[in-house]
Amino acid sequence: MDAERARELADLYRTELTANVIPFWEQRSPDPEHGGFFSCFDRQGTLYDTTKYVWLQGRFVWMFARIYNSVEPRPEWLEASRRGVQFIRQHCFDETGRMYFAVTADGRRTTLPWGIFSECFAVCALCQYARASREGEALQQAQELFWRTLDLSRQPDLDSLTYPEIPRLVTHAVPMILLNVMQELRAAESDPRYDEIGDEMLHRILDLHAHPEARALFENVWPDGTLADTPDGRVLNPGHAVESAWFVLHEARHRGDEDIRERAVDIIEWALERGWDEQHGGLLYFLDFAGLPSPYLEWDMKLWWVHVEALYALLLAHHLTGRADMLEWFERVHAWTWEHFPDPEHGEWLGYLHRTGEPALTLKGSMWKGFYHLPRGLLLIAQLLEEMA
User: Are 369 and 304 within 8 A, CB to CB?
Assistant: First the structure.
């Protein structure tokens, strides 16, 4: 990418972040009465549900602290993250140290722990908040929570709905998120154990879930990496694949490892080859590797986060390798994304589109969509483009 194009796009992405996306959430999501954050807003930005989803509490804290650290040290952003951390500490842990999936507006528990994702995003939140606030206690709490969460992740029956004698597939989401969380911690403190965790997660992503002979990264495999000829075993998630791949690219850059870098770029290439909708454009949400019917009813929808993650992964792959095809894909995804997702009338971006690109849901926030994928992607892309320029 030439410097002029990089500067042009950097201005676009940074302006979208600071003039549109941050104000939408900053003005609406912090709860001035109880602390923490609301996430459920309709297209116009009206709150329609006051439930507080715990994994989003961590994501919001991380994002407000990250823009404080990376965009501008505004006191209101630090205060928002501080009140979010306070809410997490006071209301989001049960008596065993597990974190709930959801609580009421005033912090009463409603939904039991689900997976390790509330814990993972709380670790990231505490790390980024510790950097912003210089609070050593937050970093110590992040460290302790990470090692507990790592132990939880190794329990084969965690949240299982099957009887123990039935073999279980292992999911790519776990090593993927643990790699990202480890990287967040490693940026805050030095500990040789983090690189060991990185070795393990890279092995699980690149050797078990990624299958070069099939040119695909499978979301669910048997524990030894062999494939299961079932709907869950055949499912591909292009969005997860490209997001995971840029985590791996960050790890390759940290280690100076060209082999890891090339394997990550392969995953991006496979995801775009299979995931791009040649008929209508955009990236499909789920695919069946064998082309069989998908049990996921939303398989052909186009989601905001998938496209934002693909944009950063493609741009980073181009930047680190110089590959022209990665840049061509970036421009293609960029054009489709900016044509369909931004909402100039009411701000922020639409999240859920039909296959044709028409809105399927007009909400701006929910239990899944919040102040995270879009602003994180806009920030990372803008920073990388400014570096390239």
Answer: yes
User: Which pair of structure tokens corresponds to residue 92?
Assistant: 């989001």
CA distance 155 to 149: 10
How far CA 201 is from CA of 218, 228, 313, in Å, comes to 15, 21, 18
Indicate left, alpha or beta for 37 from its phi (over 0: left) and psi (-120 to 50: alpha).
beta
Residue 30 carries which DSSP code?
B
DSSP 8-state assignment for residue 40? E
- Looking at residue 16, the DSSP 8-state letter turns out to be I
Domain ranges of the chain: 1-29+181-389, 30-159
Q: What is the percent of the chain where pLDDT is above 70?
A: 98
Instruction: Please give the CATH architecture assigned to the domain spanning 1-29+181-389.
Output: Alpha/alpha barrel (1.50)
Predicted confidence band at 76 (pLDDT cuts at 50, 70, 90)?
very high
Out of 1.10.3860.10, 1.50.10.20, 3.30.1330.130, 1.10.8.60, the CATH code matching 30-159 is 1.50.10.20
The phi, psi pair for 49, rounded to 5°, reads -155, 130
Q: What are phi and psi of 287, to 5 degrees?
A: -135, 150
Please check whether the two domains, 1-29+181-389 and 30-159, share a CATH topology. Answer: yes
Concatenating the DSSP letter of every residue in 134-155 gives --HHHHHHHHHHHHHHHHHHT-
Q: Residue 181 in contact with residue 198, Cβ under 8 Å?
A: no
